[in-house]
Structure formats: structure tokens, C-alpha cells
Design brief:
Elements lengths: L1 E4 L5 E4 L4 H11 L2 H14 L7 E5 L5 E5 L23 E5 L9 H10 L5 E6 L2 E10 L3 E9 L5 E2 L1
Parallel strand pairs: 5-6
Antiparallel strand pairs: 1-2, 3-4, 3-5, 6-7, 7-8, 8-9
């Protein structure tokens, strides 16, 4: 059994030792929807309790992964996970293991901080996905699109 420390400096147990490899393999060998499902499953099943997991896909399509507490995730304390990350980020994905896919205040602060260096942000809940898309039109003007996808995969804009 492997032990890690979360952002609150608390030890926790890893139940699925290859959780990062499962996410990376899904990214490299499958479609995005299976990737989202795998990230969600690892967030719920890979640790002693449900925890936020974040996945960053960088400009070179490399995957960077970290885990946090049940309510917060960062690369802090897992700094080695970001070595070599190149901007702009193609997608920042993270989970809300309590079940709702929405952008919290902390999420929005992260988006605003990195908005000029990010193409897409995605948050996963229980059968839900919310996306914040940045699209460049006419020079440097950025237009944001927010979509919400329910369990039955019907999109609401």
C-alpha cells in the first residue's frame, strides 16, 4: 500500500497503485469521453476516500496529474508533476468527488489566472461534465463558452 500527502499535509492511502497510469493510458489510447470516465473513477475509487484529481494536458499533449483532498486539488507538494509542462494548456480537467460539475469560486480564480494560457477547462461530477472553452477570434479577443453535459449526455448551453 502506498501513502501520499494531500494539500492539507495529511497522509492518505492509495488503493489503486497504477491510478496515474490508467489515466495516462486512457488519454493515449482512447477517446476523450473514456478519459473523463477514467479520471472520475480514479477520483472515487483509487484512494482511501473520494478525492479531487486534476489532469493537465499541455501544449505538447503531455499529461500532468495530481491528487488532493476531497475538496481541493493543486500541484503544491507534488511539484515534480509539473516539470516540463508547456503552455498554453490544451485542457485542465479536475473532479468534484462530492458529485456536482460546476466551476467553484476557486476554479474560476484559476481560470481567470490562466485564461490567456488555457484553451479549455473541464470539471467532472457524478455523471456530469461542465466545460469552459476559450476561443480566439479576431486577434487576441477571447470568447468564453460554457457548456453543461448531464448524465444523459444532452448538452445545455
Amino acid at each position: 500500500m502506498e501513502y501520499l500527502r494531500d494539500v492539507r499535509d495529511e497522509d492518505f492511502i492509495v488503493l489503486i497503485s497504477d491510478w496515474k497510469e490508467q489515466i495516462t493510458d486512457m488519454f493515449e489510447n482512447s477517446n476523450k469521453y473514456n478519459l473523463y470516465d477514467t479520471i472520475w473513477e480514479m477520483s472515487i475509487q483509487a484512494f482511501d476516500k473520494p478525492r479531487e484529481v486534476q489532469v493537465v494536458i499541455d501544449a505538447n499533449s503531455n499529461v500532468f496529474i495530481s491528487v488532493g483532498s476531497p475538496g481541493f486539488v493543486t500541484f503544491g507538494g507534488q511539484d515534480e508533476q509539473v516539470i516540463g509542462m508547456k503552455f498554453p494548456v490544451k485542457e485542465w480537467i479536475h473532479t468534484h468527488p462530492f458529485g456536482k460539475a460546476y466551476f467553484s469560486g476557486t476554479d474560476m480564480n484559476t481560470i481567470f489566472m490562466y485564461q490567456n494560457h488555457m484553451e479549455k477547462a473541464t470539471v467532472l461530477g457524478d455523471g456530469e461534465r461542465s466545460e469552459y472553452l476559450f476561443k480566439v477570434e479576431k486577434g487576441n479577443d477571447r470568447v468564453e463558452y460554457i457548456t453543461y453535459v448531464r448524465k444523459d449526455n444532452e448538452e445545455e448551453l
